[in-house]
Structures are given as structure tokens and as C-alpha cells.
Amino acid sequence: MDEDTPRTDGGTERADGESTEDVALDPWGSASVGDYADLFAEFGIEAFDDVADDVVDHHYLMRRGVIFGHREYDAVAEAMANGEPFAALSGFMPTGDPHIGHKLVFDELIWHQERGGDVFGLIADLEAHSARGMSWDEIDEHARSYLLSLLALGFDPEDGELYRQSDNREVQDLGFELGSKANFSEFEAIYGFDGETNISHMQSVVTQTADILYPQLVDEPKPTVIPVGPDQDPHVRLTRDLATRLRYFKVTEAFASFEADEEVHQIIADAYDDLKEEAEKRDVDMIRCGWAAQYIDGGMDSVTWDINEFPDKDTVLAGTKPDPERDAINNLRNAVKEPLRPRVRFLDRNATDEAFEALIEAIDGEKRVFEGHVDAFEMTREEAESLAREVEIDHNGFGFRQPSSIYHRFMTGLTGGKMSSSIPASHISLLDDPEDGYDKVRSATTGGRDTAEEQRELGGEADECPVYELYAYLLAGDDDGLAAEVYSECVNGERLCGGCKEQAAELMREFLEDHQEKREEAEELLEDLDIDLDSDRRGTGGEH
Fold it and tell me: Compositional bias of type Basic and acidic residues: which residue ranges (predicted)?
């Protein structure tokens, strides 16, 4: 990406590496993050910059650092670059009018659709009813509004799918299956649920995991990205776990008949590489587990290279290696004379007897069959993953891939602090009268200095300015030149806040006028869609 493009990176990198505050991601709570860097260490979200080079023709939100993090997006980027199937999905909880913060997700879905993805937009009406206590009449009204804005911004319903959770039987059936792999203690740890949480709220969470996997029910399992704010990451993490638990087979790499965790496996792999090089010099054609135990414990000089000179299994070797090296040594010593050979392993997780037998039959080349797993010696990990998924699908399994995700920054409220739907002055609704949108921008807080003289001398603080965010996130659109100009003139003291807000206010008015005209044009398109926006459901909702 262009290094000269101004980026909204405040908070992603800290020189001291220390956290500024505790991080809690609550899908139904505060939509703010104090320090985005904490998300990398705390929850395993990866920096988007790490995968940016794999993406062709970046969206401007990627170029400007608004999209800051991801989980396994490289799989989606690779499929996109190679013209292979991939999908994108995101959901919208209809609890109010769509606003400019929601537009980030709308745009990300449309961008993926324009690049050949199967794209899904869903109305999370079950969540709105159970978690927010919305009535069905309110949900119907807001759902219609969300869909109109999505269509007005360019979503192609003929090339994608829009649906309501409550009307999608496939999603609800899948949610039932996924629920069999989850438990309350997990929900308690991830979401903070307790004895006061209503059951429908919990059920809506399982439904959302089914939503996230739903694109893989259409045609075939494929790389799928979920564009969201970081507050929705708990749903992504849970879904990735459940998708794995539902699989028939787990594919791992191994060197002997025993199973080892990732850290122990790497220690053994390193030992194997070193021993293989030495074995070739000694014209030894088969490395033994016992020799690897000797090597890890005492180095190459301690290896006897004699198959008859292994210590007894209950003999303590001389070294004092800590875990996990001690675990590696113990596992290898228990295997003793067994050959140490790289192989891929298929572990039976949920397979039927018929599926397990079919897998054994389908593995070409040398293989060893054990109770509960099969080792294949002539396959790559990638080939094994593909075969396991193929057999699973052929035997009525799902074969899900773990979903990917990308994360965008929250927009700062126009009045400072977080943007909140409950504070009208802090956000701009896509339904706001264009003149009201103009006035809100004109009244917005800025990152400017106290006086014009100070602004010219010291420059403005664009990275702390809600108005500059409007340019970067929305108003500049795909025009990096405009975003760069605003940023440069601000920080160099050439741009004063009054003129900057006037320009932004005019652009906001133009955007709202144009968007609302396109919403009117989308009315006919919405009427033709097979989606019920006049629900006859009854109920009082969940939490109030």
C-alpha cells in the first residue's frame, strides 16, 4: 500500500508496548476501544498490515488504516487474487436508523461483492428482539431502512443474498447443530452471561454463529470473511471454535505414533531435521525415536546411533530439561525403537464409522491405521485437509472452514468520545435531513488549537479530530488526494478548523442528498426481493 496515504493509526502502535486500559469486547455494550494495540496481544487479532500485500486493489479503508486488524484474511485474499470462490457476510441489528458508522460495513460488503465474492447481508432480528427487547413492528421498520441503504450504496441483490434470521430455516437448523457443541460455561467466559441472562439471548448467539457459517452451506465450504467492528470479535472467535468442533476429522502433522501438542511437535521437528543431516553422513537410513530423545536431552554427542543401546523407559536421563522439552523426551523414549518419520495424521473427531472407513480407503500411498487415527506418509498437509473435507461432505458432514474476519476502527462521535445512536448530535444518520447533517458537522468538535495563531504555528491534531475522520472514513471516498491534502494542511497549520468544517459540512450535505435519492430509487428493488418486512410474529422481546 502507498506509505504516503494518511492513516488513522492513533492507538495501534505503542512505543512502550504497555496497555493503557483493560480491554473488554462486548457485542451489546460500549462501542469504543482505548488502545487498538491491546487487541492484538489480548485476543489474537493480527495487524492488517501483515496481510495487506496479499490484497489486490485495496479498498480505501484498508489504505488509510481504518481497517486495522484481521483473522486469517490471507485465505480470502488468496482466493480473491486467484479467482477462486470466497464469500463475505455481515449482519445488522435493527435497533435504530442506519448511520455513517454502519456505512463502513455496507461498503466492505459491496467491495467484496465487486471482486467476485458471494456476499450475504442479514438482519439480526432475533438478536434485536432477545437482547434489546425490540418489538417486531420496530424491527420491521428498521430492517427496511437498513436494506434500503445497503441497496442504495450499490449492493447487487441478484448477485448476493439478503435475509432475516427469523425467516432462514437453514440458519436455525445449523444453529441447533452448533449449539450441541457449546455450553453455558463457555458463554459465561466469553460474554459474561449469568443466571439473569434470558435463554433467547443465548439462543440468538448460537444463531449468529450459524449466520457466520451460512455462506459455506451455499455451494461449498469456502474462505469467508466477516467485516465487523472489534466489539463483534467474540462471535467470530466462538464460531471459529464451533466450526472446528463440528468437523469429522482433525488434520495434524506428526513424527511418531503418539500425539504431541504444537510446541512439543516443533521441538521434535527441529530434532528430526538435525538428526536427518547427521544420519545421512553416517549412512543411517532410519532415525529412531530413542535417538531423538537422547539428542534433545544431551545434544548430538549423546546419541548412540545403536538400536540396541537405548535406556530403559523408566530410566531418568542425565539432562534437566524443562517442559515442553521434557514432554518431548518422555514421549520419544516411550516410543524407543519406533522410526521417527514425518507424516500427516487424520484424527477421528466426529466421523461416522462409514466416513472413517471411506477416509482410510481414500488415502493413497503408505499409511498406518490406528484406533481413532490414520497416519499418511505420502501426502502434504494441504492435500490431507482437502481429502478430509471431501470425505466429510460426501458422508453428510459440513466440512466447514474456520471463518476469517477484518476489523475496522470505531468512528469518534462528532461531539467527542464514542459515537452513540442514543446521542443524536454525536452521529449522523443516513436518514438525517441533509441540512441537519450539515449543521452537525459545522458544530462538531475538532482537533484544532485554541486560537488561529496557535493553529498556524503548531498545526492541528488531525489524528485526534472527528472531522478529519469524516474525510478519511467517508467524505473523501476513494480520493486519497483529498484525504492527504486535508491531513497535510491541518498538521502543517495551513488549514483552519472553520474552513475545514465548512468543506466537510458541504460534502456531508451532498452525500446525504445523493444517498437519500438513491434510497428512493431502491424502494422498487426492495419490493421485488423475497424478504418479508411485514412480520406477523408476536412477542414482548427479551431484555428491557
Answer: 1-17, 534-544
